[in-house]
Amino acid sequence: MSFIFGLRLSLNSTLTFSYSSSNIKRGTSIKIGFSSTYLNDDLPSRTEFNANATSTNHSNALIPTTSLLHESFSVPTGSPTQYCRVIPFVRPNHVQVRGFKTDRNVHAEVSRSPGFNQRIKQLLGLEKPMPKPAVQQQTQLNAEALETSLKTNENASPEEVEKFKVAFAEGYLAGQKNVKSPGKSTRWLKLVQQLLTIVLFLSIFISLMASANGSMFRIQLGNQVEVDPEEIHVTFNDVKGADEAKQELKDVVEFLKSPEKFSALGGKLPKGVLLVGPPGTGKTLLARAVAGEAGVPFFHAAGPEFDEILVGQGARRVRDLFKAAKERAPCVIFIDEIDSVGAKRTNSVLHPYANQTINQLLSEMDGFHQNDGVIVLGATNRRDDLDKALLRPGRFDVEVNVPTPDLTGRKEILTLYLGRVRTKSIDVELLARGTTGFTGADLENMVNQAALKAAIDGADSVTMKYLENARDKVLMGPERKSRIPDEETNEITAYHEGGHTLVAYHTKGSHPLHKVTIIPRGPSLGHTAYMPEKESYHVTKKQMLAMMDTMMGGRAAEELIFGADKITSGASNDLKQATSLATAMVMDWGMSESMGLRTHDTSSKALVTVNDLSPSTTDQIDSEIKKILQDSYDRAKAILKAHSKEHKLLAEALLKYETLDADDIKAILSGEGSDKFKR
């Protein structure tokens, strides 16, 4: 078994001897390592040298550890030692380490490897670093002490001492040659690291102070945007289709322009105006028009921008917003989607700070401190979610409803946007009638889509064709480029849409037909479009039953032409709308003879639907809804059976031309153009 012994002696904090032997015998050469771990530029990090040592008091057997430590040779210890460690290694079976502490040269350690405090003092000039000559002098003193110890050592022969000195010198020179000093770049790198650490701690301290004191080193994160009056070019002339809302807001503009006229009579400027309406009806446009007409600063903020992950951030931003507005009064603050910040307060223990933002908003709008000359405009499409304290007089004094535009409003909006593009032969009246339920944003998008399509096709102007295609795209999605190659599917679709068309044509109270097509658009394989003659403000029972019969025409046509076992899922949306209409007739509008003149309310706003109706009443309602739907289906089937020939002509014409307008439908069903549209 092979044994390896190692001896390590440290003469000071960084100067060490290393001794190792493998199967040491009499006259065997040994290796002694001398290392220096100074951090200074002019000293090597490690120096090694060889020396021959001869053991005279032992046989050729392996030298035991104790003999190695005490009798093998003597290492001079002229300088204070840090530690002396004997490490016997047994390969591969045994490893053992032993050691003990000795004295340390603290002054040398601090001067060669200063700590963080010493470096800060040196950086500030409070303490000077130990110069290099002093370090070299310390090294020279250690070497002199080592030489003195070698000379006075009685156990070492003169030859061994000389070999020790030669090996020491050679090893020192070799280490100084091979080991590179850290250089100035290392010192600069450490200095930069220290400076970055200081900057980091200062940044954290400043951030904490900014959070604790809202006015110190405050950083705005985009919670408010001020628009100067000269930058707002929107006036009430740019707002169309909302005459009632404009009239209400014109009074607010008059308050801002001439507040003394109202204060002379004892009147006060309203604190806030709440704009309520569906998305896209022009609430934001109205708010900008108020600022543009009044010529006052306009602060715009979105409700979701107030609250962040940090507690108290939303309340602080509300304070900052109103503080900036007070400095620029008279002015307008517009908070879009105010329901996200002004929702009803909660008592949940899981979110104890959830009400801070709305409480701050309530305080700023009507608290102890008055906000003279500051009007708050809020916009929401979820009024029921707002806190009642926010809706009371003194905060939002005026509530303006901004509904979807009626026929007259749609004509005004279309005229406005069509005037911005190049058009030719546009029937605005027809477009307005065919866009019932469109908001101002929808109409703007429709005109823009038509202009884009005309530009792609290389047309000189936007025509009715592009506008009607754009309307269908907004309603049902983009048109598919080609017809479905499956002829059976196309035939079913043609008879399905023909059933809708035929029932609508022969049912009194139904809306006039506009066109029918089997070209797929979005999820639909085809559709039948209607054109109301005038704006409808209420719907009669006759009109509801007519709409329901028309919805049932598609499924009835599939059953009559292809059989009950080949009906398809294409009528799913028709059945859903018909069921919703029949349910409303029975439960909400009192249009059922068996249920009487009453409503049947079920709460569906909660997480779980609550039904307070008795089981017998529920069964009676279900039976009545089923009866209304079945009667409607039977009426649709009767019309299709009576006009089966016209139904076939419609389907064949759709398979041939894909799209039929109102004139084509009238020609086919009246028999005037039956030969022309035969397949």
Automatic annotation (TrEMBL):
GO terms for cellular component: mitochondrial inner membrane. It is found in: Membrane; Mitochondrion. In the C-terminal section; belongs to the peptidase M41 family. GO terms for biological process: mitochondrion organization; protein quality control for misfolded or incompletely synthesized proteins. It comes from Nesidiocoris tenuis. Pfam families: AAA, AAA_lid_3, Peptidase_M41. The keyword Protease applies. Its main location: membrane. Transmembrane segments: none annotated. It comes from the Eukaryota. Gene3D superfamilies: 1.10.8.60, P-loop containing nucleotide triphosphate hydrolases, Peptidase M41. This is AAA+ ATPase domain-containing protein. One of its GO terms (molecular function) is ATP-dependent peptidase activity. Residues 269-406 form the AAA+ ATPase domain.
